[in-house]
Amino acid sequence: MATEAEVGRSRPAPVHKRGRGREGEKFRLVLDTARSVFLEYGYDRTSMDMVANEAGVSKATVYAYFENKQQLLRKLVQEECRAVGPNFAATLKWPTQDIEADLRAIARNFTSIFLDKRGLDFYRLIISNVNNFPEIAMFFIEAGPDQTRAEIADFFNMAMQQGLLAIDDVDLAVKQFLGLVAADLPLSWALAAQPPSPEQYETMINSGVRLFLSFYATKKSND
After folding, report:
1. Domain range spanning residue 18?
2. Cα torsion angle, 82, 93, 215, 205, sign
3. What is the per-residue pLDDT across 135-167, written as a single tens digit (0 to 9) for each?
4. Do 15 and 94 share a domain, yes or no?
5. Residue 6, burial from CB neighbour count under 10 angstroms (0-12, 13-18, 19+)
6. 130 & 163 share domain
């Protein structure tokens, strides 16, 4: 097993952005460094000393930002979900002019997660530590899936206000929609299987959206 000093010499320092205050340069350096150490050594083998050593800062600096390793990992999970998670606000305008086109945009935004290696690396870190650190699953679900489902639910509610969708159980409809448009992508992604071809990907998205609308669309949305 590598010593902390050897860990610090084994890889170049991560790239980070300049800034001020708690979210400034040193904070970003500690967080970026922790990500690379967690991914290489796992949660159990990573220590706050290792993070400080590789980042080139004092142990006191790391503890000034994070009380313990658990808090550090929780922040990393939140950051990773923001970095690789879907950003629906950037792709949608309201009121919608084309509900089918907007649903395809949401579907592509969501499924792009499963074509991202960065997200896969961190997902595997979470899965490998769930048994010994159950809280990590909760951190991930709150920052990732729960946030995604809430944003899609907001869109469905607005579409209903516009008279384009008729949904009795929005939470259920969100889960159905994501299952239809993602198909077996989550499983293939987790197993590092071959991703679908562009043609297969488009067919999966388009057919999933059409199936969803065939059940939930109102007559108005088809006019």
Report:
1. 4-66
2. negative
3. 888 888 888 899 899 999 999 999 999 999 999
4. no
5. exposed
6. yes
